[in-house]
Every structure is written in structure tokens, then in C-alpha cells.
Amino acid sequence: MSPAEVPRSAAMVSGKHSLGFVVPALVLIGVFLVFPALWTVYLGLTDHRLTGLAAADPQVVGAANYAEALGDERFRTSLWLTVQFVLGSAVLGQAVLGFAIAWVLRDRRGPLKSVTEGLVLLAWILPSSVVAFLWIALLDRDGGTLNAILHTPGFAWLLDHPMMSIIVFNVWRGTAFSMMLYGAALENVPPSQLETARLAGASTLQQLRDVVFPHIKGHVLTNLLLITLWTFNDFTAFQLTAGGPEGRSEILPVYIYNVAMSGGRLGFGAAVSFLVLVVNLVLAFAYLRLLRSRGEVRPS
Amino acid sequence: MIALRGLTKEFPGGVRAVDALDLEIGDGEFFALLGPSGCGKTTLLRTIAGLETPTSGRIEIGGVDVTGSPPGRRDVAMVFQDYALFPHMDVTANIAYPLRIRKVPRAERTAKAAETASRLSLSELLDRRPAQLSGGQQQRVALARAVACRPKAFLFDEPLSNLDARLRLEARTFLKRLQRELGVTTVFVTHDQSEALALADRIAVMSAGRITQLGTPSEVFRRPATTFVASFIGSTPMNLLPGVAEDGVLRVGGAELPLPDGVPDGEILYGLRPEYADLTTREPREKGAFRGKVAVVENLGTAHLVTLECTGHLLQVVVPEGAEPPPGTAAWAVPRPGRALLYRDDALVGDA
Amino acid sequence: MTPVRHALGTIGRAAFLALVLGFFALPLLWLASAPFDAHPSITTSVPEFTLANFRALLDNPYALGSLRNSLIQACGSAALVVTLAALAAYALSRARVPGRDALLYVLLLLSSVVTGTAAMVPLFELATRLNLIDTHLGVVLTLSGGLLPAAIFILKDFMDATPTSYEESARVFGASAGQVLRHVVIPLVRPGLATIAVWAVANVWGSFLQPFILLRDPDKAPGAVILYTLYTEGGAPRLDVISAFSLLYSLPVVVMYVFVSRRYGFRFHGGIKR
Fold first, then answer.
1. What is the second-level CATH architecture of the domain A72-263?
2. Residue (of A54, A162, A159, A180) closest to A116 by Cα position
3. Where are the transmembrane segments (chain C) (predicted)?
């Protein structure tokens, strides 16, 4: 019997020992990850507040928070803005731009490739507070670099086009992931097949459709699911506009913060959080199903 | 001495890798556990080492019952198939590792490692990491590490299987000489019958968790106890032809051979090694030769393997260099007296 | 392909790359120039070189302290995550634990589902009731809980790739469980441990939402929060302080990224960053 066939020896880490090894991690995960998720459900059914009477003695109000949210103009606006944000910045922006960069750079070598990749990556790895301020500076009404370049002095991007601003910002911020994922995916496309298509006279679009896409279908789906999940939960836009002006860029994460933390309506905020949680669950579940069907697992 | 009594190892799921096994291995003996993959030989070795806990039965090493002892208390050294040299330690640290566990002072164990290394011609390599060594060097370092702790017994798991063919022969000779010099009881696992024949004082052929045959290499080679052993041992497979014993003769493959005493009438399996028959193109005078037509001739280097098409059966014969007939020739295979084996119900019943 | 089409394609690709470079470089230019500019303005310009802006940092009551806070929270979380994840991953990799794969799947699922955004209310409530508001420990525990599942997952991969024969060999030579761990397992998976440590530090270093919610006291706030307050709270932003601080605060993350990807060929794939 080769060692690979021999079942792993349990002598050193026996069942009991292994439990002792795993428990500390499980406790921490349980208290600070699982429990909060479950608690959200309960809190969402109460009128819990940060201050005042309902802070001391919260009452269970059932589905009242949900009914109120659905009837609330501000919530519905926020939901619609979130859809715009996710579709615009992630699905259209990051995925398309990321693929385009990966495609153009695929068989290039040398400094141009490293510099481009480096800049795109830098936008991704810098702390959110820093990049938020970089964009505030870029878009500033009076001295902003963008206005200086475009010769549009006094144009208030963040005030007049807040959604457009955070969407473009998030494309800039998050394209790196899509670029790297598609870059890796394109390496798996057999060059001989591309050459065959090119010899047959296929245009770039035909090559993409007939040769490249069938090979990277799985990657595209993975990419879209992950960046949707992340963009849907991204809080960085808060540091740019804080949801303003007048809630015109108040995507759901910012809405929850404004309602629950600034507004003090913890119960109501938890109810909205729960909706976010459900959407996350659906996306993550789809992602894991996808990974399992492809027989590989990668941390998300 | 290593003694196993009624040793059984059952894995969850009910697989019996070792099945009620009794075995005694003498002091200083070089002992081979031979069998195809999945026969339980590696599990048996790991159970002796203490890496697997037996389901039932006892293990004694040097007269001490070690069944319940952890691996480190059994005073054995094991060389793994992948050598398991620690990649983050240099050769000295690897060889000295068992001594480090025994709290031997650093200077002493470094000296000891150097001494062992020189014995295994590794002195030049003491500062290297395992990744900087060839396969053969790695194997010798693994041996040196086992030697350095002066155990009561060595346990080798396929010690030569990770080497390429040419190196394997060299390493085999080296291993045998080392074991002779040290005189330490050695149990090794292999699926390669030639390795077992070449190295071992005694061989246990295993199949499905049991020992099918136990004996010296020549016993196992000359008189395989079952057709399984017969077909497993030997570099060219043994001819196994169905026949019938009746009226004092053995009818097999179109030939009539004299039936040895004590073999009752009935169906029989006739076994003949290709090396134990002579091929001739003229009809032999003696009775009991297999007549056939030469179908295939394979060059083995110093000899040829001739496949003879007899009535309804194929028979293979090894002929010396230069004596091979061209394909299509009529030829006779004459079994050497006393070298053919007769099996009935998969047990050896006599030789002819 | 006709020569004209070929030429057009080349020009098109070059133009596209130029646009991409411009788009990604433009916001970053300010970070490269302003910290060294004697008169930093919000507009990117060629700096009048000075290091005075970094001196201005020393005068700011919160700037350097916040970096220390970032360090405490990042290293605390990294230590906790590496220790707990290593223990769990080792046991999960080596022992027959029923339902192990299902457990890993569920943990992984949870870590991507229960984001700071979705759980900010209960996390705040939990910290309040456990008296963890305004403590480093609160931030460390909250962030570690979110990082652990992915850390366990990655480390288990590392452990699975390490043959058990190393450990078994040491055991046959008489090493105790502790010795096997110290002499063999930890050195063998050290690259994995380093990766997880750097990954955790980088994650916590950049985190904004959790410390923003859990810390009220500016003396405890990490760099992410202090930087945010520097440009949002009160009066004209001190651009000299902001620019120098931004650079100082960004550098460790960039260095860590380069270190990990150079040393271990590790790409921050699959959300390793978040």
C-alpha cells in the first residue's frame, strides 16, 4: 500500500485532541460572526434604539420595521441606488475594464505591463481612507486636479453627480481583482486554438466569442458573483460622500449606518441589515455551488 | 527479535488491512514483506512502528510487549518511502535529529552525525539541505538518520522505490552490505519481488492482510506455495497450464508426463518456470516434452524468451543467447526433472 | 489580417492602455507629490521639495498615536488569527473529524456573508454589552472573527500539502507532540503562517468601518479613522498633515503586499484582501 492510500494516522491528533485544537477558533467565530448574524434577526424585530426609552426597554414589534422600510421613500431610493452602484461599478465597470486590461496585456512583457498592473493593483491595496481622500482631492470643486485638467473650474462633481462619482471611484478602486482573475483565466486558453481561429480569419470579437469565452465561463461567473457581493457590501463610498447630498448617493451600507448609528434606530437598522444578509447568503451560496461543481475551492 | 501474535488491524469501514497475523522475525534477520499494493504490508510495518494502533493482537520487540507503547518508545527507526528528510534542516541536523530528541549534547551529536555520515559516504554533504541532494543521496541520509540512533530494529518502507532503475541496483547492494555490517534486525516492505529475493534472508508474501507464504528467497522462488505466489515471484511469469492426472500419467498441453507418487487423480494446474525448460528443434528421445510452434521471440539481452504455441496453450521458455529458433519453427520444450510444480485447489501438491 | 486593420488594432490598443494608465495614475499622483510639497494644495503639481510636512505630523496630537493604535490592532489580530487558525487547520488537516468539509464550507460561507456592513448593529450591541466599546480588544476580536474562516481554509491547504511522513518520522524517533509541532510542523508551514500574518495585518490596517463604530475615543482610533476625521471634521483640512500622514499610513500595506507576492509568489486572489 502506498502512503497515499493509507488512511491518515489518528494517533497523534486523536478525536478528543483535535476538538481542543479547533474549539478556540470556533468560539471566536461563533461569538463574533455567527451570533451577530443570528442576533440581527431578533434585533430587526424590535424597536431598539441607541438612546431614550426604547434603549432601556426595547419592545418586540414584529414585522413593523420591514413594513416601514418597504413603505419608506428613502429606503426604496437607497435600494435603487445600490442596484445602480453594483451594476454600474462592478458588473459593467470592474468586470469589463478588468477583462479589457487583462486581454490587452495578455501576451505583453516588460515595463509597460508591470507599470499598468502595478498602478491598478495599487488602487486596490491602498487603505480605503487614503483612496477616499485622493478622490476627494481629485474631484474637489475649487482646486481639484480633474477640474484643472478639464478646464471646468468650480464644477462640483461630488455634489452635482454624487452617484456617478462613487461609481467611477469604485471602478478605479476594484478593477484589480477582475484584471488578475481574468489574467489567470486567459493563461488557460490554449494559444493553438486562438491561432487556429486567427488563421481562419476570425476577428477579435469572434475570437473572444468562439474561443476565449467558452474557456473562461466559470471564471466570469466567479468574478461577477464575488465583485457583486463585495460591491454590495462596500462601505468606502461613505468616506467619499457619506450618502449625500440629500441621500443622493446613499447606497444600502451607508443607509444602514446613517439610520442605525447616526440616527440611533438600531432595531430598524438591524431589519435592513437582515435583508443585506439574505442577499449576501444567496450570492455566497451560488458562489460555493459554482466552486463545488468545478471541483475546486478557493477562499472568498 | 520481533514477534507478532494474532495481529489484526481493521480500518473504519471494516477494511481488514492485517488479519490475525502471527510472525516471528529473528535477531539480525533481514526480513521482507512482499506483496502487491493494497495487501496490507505497509499497514503491518506502520503497526510495528506504532503509527497505527492494532485492533487486536500483540507486538513484542526484543522480548518486550510494545503493543500499547507510543512509536518513540519502541526503539525502532523507520525510513519512509519519501525519506521524510526535514527540508528546513541540513544533513547534519537531520542525521542528528534522533539524538536531539534524546537530549544528547549538541557537540556530541554533531560528532556522531559526522561519523555516521562518513560511514555512508556522506561527509561532503553535511551542510546541504535535502533539496540540494540527489535521490540516491537523500536515501542514504535517511538511512544514516536511522543508523545514528542505534535502534533495535530498522523498518524500511519501500526504501528503493523512489530511485531510478540503475541507481536502485547500486543502492540495493549498498543496503545489503550495510545491514550485514550493522547486524540490526531489519523489516522492509516492497512490492518488487526481485528486490525481496535479492535482499532478504526470509520473505513473507502477503495477500489480503494474511501471509500466503513464509520462507527463504530460494524456497519462495523454487516452491511457491500457491499459484498467487507462483505468478507473483520471478521476473518472467511462471507457465500455469491446466491438466488432468489419471492412470498414472499427467496430461497437460498435449503432452503426457509421468505422474509423481502421491498425487491422486483429478484436475491439476501444472506450473513450470520458463527458466526450467530446455528448447530443442529436434524431437527429444525422452517422453514428456511439449511440442509446439515458435510464435514469438523476445530478446532479454543475455537470453531470449520464446513463446511456444502448443495444443490450445501458450508456453514460454527462456533459451540461452544464440540458441533461439526463428518464429514458425517446430520445437519441443523439455521440462527439467523435479522443477515443475503441481497445484490443486490453489495448493502445492507435488513436483514433477 | 490586412495591414490597415493590424495598424488600427495596434493604435487602438496603445490608446486604450494610455487611457487606463492615465485613469489609474491620476488620483495617485497627489499621494506622490503633495507629501513633499512645501505648499501642498489640493491640486496635483510638481512639488517644491521639502520634508517639513512630516515634521508637521509630530505636532498633530493624534497622527502618530493612531499609527501606534493601528499597529496594536493589526498585530493583535494577526497573532490571534495565526494562532487559532494554525491550531484549527492542523487538527482539521490531520484528524478524522466527521463533517469536516461541511464545516469548512459553512465557515467560508459565513465569513463572506456576515460582513461588517450587514452586522454593524449586532456587533455594536455585542461590544456594548461585553464592555468592549473603546477598547483595542473589541476591534481585535471583531475583526479576527471575520478573518478566521478564510485563514483556517488557507492554512489547511498548506497543511494538507505537507506529507504526514515528516511528523511520523519525528514520532518514531521519539518526539513528543509538542516537539513534533515545534521542530517539524511549524517550520514546514512557516510560509503559510507568514502569509496569513501579513494578510491579517494588511486587512486590519486598512479596516475603517469596525473601528469607526466601536471606538469613540480618538486616543484609541487607528490611522484609518484618524485620517477620515482629519479631512471631514471642522475647518479647512490641513493638507500638509493629511498628505504626509496618507503616505506614511499607506506604506506598510504596499511593503507587505510586495513582500508576500515576491517571497511566496502569493497573489492576493479570491478576496484575500477583504
1. Orthogonal Bundle (1.10)
2. A180
3. 71-92, 104-124, 136-155, 192-213, 241-260
